[in-house]
Design goal:
- The protein has a two-stranded antiparallel ribbon with strand order 1-2.
- The protein contains nine helices and two strands, in the order ααββααααααα.
- Helix 2 packs antiparallel against helix 3 and helix 6 runs antiparallel to helix 7.
- It is globular.
- It is about 65% helix and about 5% strand.
- The longest helix is centred in the last third of the chain and has 28 residues.
- The protein has a single domain, classed as Rhodopsin 7-helix transmembrane proteins (Rhopdopsin 7-helix transmembrane proteins, Up-down Bundle), CATH 1.20.1070.
- With about 260 residues, the protein is mainly alpha-helical.
Length: about 260
């Protein structure tokens, strides 16, 4: 008995070739951001390397002597350097780790960078607005680190495929971040006529800072396109360029007026 002839059809290439990793679209963006932030680190050293702010040990009293002087240029160079390291490593040596992190709905490399850059930035905001006593600055730095840990925990406790989402770490981070901004706001209200750091600049800094938190809230409430974790990651990359740069250069402008 003869079998009817069959025609072997080749499997379409789209079914045999491996699917591209969704995270691959971010690789060139990370490389570009690493270059931009590294260039800004060098530029800010040139522009603000000689601008110093005093840290005192007596509640910011006008008669208090400087306990320590910090360079705005050096601190912001470290701020931009941390961002450049994050993006550079995510695009090269830690690329596979980065891609795995995104598949798991998190990015510990980003949070490691924030643990360095966020305290530097908020401490500079405090110093520029007149919060100079070391005890207040320690509280501000510690509260900012707590906020970063809460942000990381928000991702760690809400993996992809979860049935429920907890927002407890997020709101805990919001409460922690309220501490430094309250201290800064009280200082500005009390010395409104003593410095050129205006309310509009303060509000601008606060909005730029808060934009990172808003992005995470949208991400974990899965609002619109943020239901895709990678959309939130893409937004973090945009904020890394726009918000981080704007925050830093406003600090340079404010410190140069003191």
């Amino acid at each position: 008995m003869r079998h009817a002839p069959t025609l072997d059809r080749p499997t379409p290439p789209s079914l045999t070739s491996p699917r591209p990793d969704p995270a691959s679209r971010f690789r060139s963006a990370h490389a570009g951001l690493a270059v931009v932030h590294l260039a800004q680190a060098v530029l800010v050293l040139v522009v603000a390397g000689d601008i110093v702010l005093a840290v005192t040990d007596r509640g910011g009293s006008p008669t208090a002597g400087a306990w320590l002087e910090v360079s705005v240029g050096v601190l912001l160079a470290a701020y931009f350097g941390a961002a450049a390291a994050n993006h550079g490593l995510s695009a090269t040596l830690l690329w596979r780790t980065y891609a795995t992190e995104l598949r798991n709905g998190r990015n510990r490399i980003r949070w490691a960078e924030y643990a360095v850059s966020a305290p530097i930035l908020i401490l500079l905001v405090a110093l520029v607005t007149g919060v100079t006593d070391v005890s207040s600055l320690v509280v501000i730095g510690a509260a900012t680190l707590v906020m970063i840990v809460c942000g990381w925990m928000q991702e760690a406790l809400n993996p992809p495929g979860r049935r429920t989402t907890t927002m407890v770490p997020f709101w805990s981070g919001v409460l922690a971040s309220a501490v430094p901004w309250t201290i800064v706001a009280v200082q500005m209200i009390g010395t409104s006529g003593d410095h050129e750091f205006g309310l509009s600049v303060f509000l601008s800094l606060f909005i730029l800072w808060a934009s990172f938190g808003v992005n995470q809230w949208l991400q974990f409430r899965q609002v619109g396109p943020w239901s895709d974790y990678l959309y939130g990651e893409q937004t973090y990359l945009v904020l890394s360029l726009v918000a981080k740069s704007a925050l830093a250069w406003q600090i340079v402008t404010g410190s140069s007026l003191l």
